[in-house]
Amino acid sequence: MTAPEKEKCQRDLEKQGVKYSVESLFAEVARDRVEMVQAFLACGMSVETTGPDNWTLLHEAAKNGSDRTVRLLLDAHANVNARTTLYEVTPLSRAAGKGHTSTVGVLLAAGAEVEGYALILAAQGGNVDTIRALLAAHTDVNHRDGEKKTPLLWYFNGQQKPGVLDALIAAGADVNAVDDRGMSALFWAIQQGGDASVAALIAAHADVNRAALSNGHKETPLMHAVASGYLNIIKMLLAAGADVNAMPEDGQTALTRTVDWGKPDLVDVLLQAGADLKAPQGGRFLIGAAKNGWPALVRKALDAGADANTGAQGEGPPLVALLAAWTSTIDWLASAEVQDRMQADPVYAKERKDEFVQAAKARSEIACLLLRAGAKANLKNADGASANSLLKKLGFADAAEFRGKGCALSAKMPKRAR
């Protein structure tokens, strides 16, 4: 094409209201306006024209599922395996991520390299037909990216549409693959409360006892489910052989998770499954139950033979931990912020008062249980506080006087701190 012919061609485009520019060409590609794209190419625009990040016309057409334009560009010898500068994304990966199954088929037929990243994006996007097309082309179902995540692991970080999980498992996805945090698909499914997903993974022989770093601690899938409070999943894991007494970290078990995360209603199901209240957990369960004001759980632990004087992580033995937490509650209620709000809001004030009365009653009962079980008043926590010193702050001479007065903590609302 001569220069005058090219200029005339460009003028003809502009007469149709289309500016002869790279931006306009990309816009026509996105709209799948084949005739206009063909006109741009005829007027001298290269099929390998790129935008920022080495984004080609074929990338744009694939992203939008513009099949007619994809075919036109491929017929014009566009590079089917062009990669962006950042992340090296191909047109196939872009089409797969958007769930454009027919476009994926066109690109594969044109010789697109089969790559695992395309399957990762498809798993995130959740188009099962696209996933099947990629798997039929022998895409590696267990491909790992920079975060060590497989398509199955990325599925749980995507839209999780029906059929995708089953398709990946049927294709041989490793259900026990873990990411760079040690999290398996089972952990991700539990975290999202997916009963059906957990059931599918268990059926595919997911390891129900493999520990991983989660919630800042190393924990088993069962502990993870307890922390989230998912009763149905807990039952599924136990039925699949989850070790109810597993302790991946010192002092951490499924039982301790019930008190750490405020799930007292889950204790019985764990006990029925054989959870050991006397396991060497450093008193964490008993301490947690005492601090949270759950007399029934404290009684269960003591009746099972838990040591009333065992301490954990600097909190000291249960009685000290209980009284330290109680004095902190009193200090909070006496703070200017809370006092001002109670003065301004009678409803809030009544709620706090009712809570305080109930809490005082529960903690008084727990204190008596611990003392009767042999709790020693002179043992200290990491801050040097003992039951005797804390009781003195609460108006008692010592533990003997406290016990002589029925272990009755005052239910009178604290006054404003000076």
Strand tally: 2
The main pleated sheet reads as:
2 strands, antiparallel
Number of helices: 24
By helix and strand content, what is the structural category? Answer: mainly alpha
Head-to-tail CA distance between termini: 91 Å
Question: Helix content range of the residues, please?
Answer: 40-55%
The H-and-E topology, N to C, reads as: HHHHHHHHHHHHHEEHHHHHHHHHHH
The main sheet orders its strands as 1-2
Uncertain spans:
none
Radius of gyration, rounded?
33 Å
Average pLDDT, all residues: 91
Shape call: elongated
> Beta-strand percentage?
under 5%
Attribute tags:
single chain; 418 residues; mainly alpha; two-stranded antiparallel sheet; 24 helices
How would you describe the overall organization of this protein?
The chain has 418 residues and is mainly α. Helix content is 53%, strand content 1%. The chain contains 24 helices and two strands. It has helices at 3-15, 22-30, 34-42, 57-63, 67-75, 91-97, 101-109, 116-125, 128-136, 151-155, 164-170, 185-191, 195-203, 221-228, 231-239, 254-260, 267-272, 284-292, 295-303, 318-333, 336-344, 346-372, 387-393, 399-404, and strands at 212-214, 217-219. A two-stranded antiparallel ribbon has the order 1-2. Strand 1 and strand 2 form a beta hairpin. Helix 4 packs parallel to helix 6 (91-97) and helix 12 packs antiparallel against helix 13 (195-203). The radius of gyration is 33 Å and the shape is elongated. The mean pLDDT is 91.
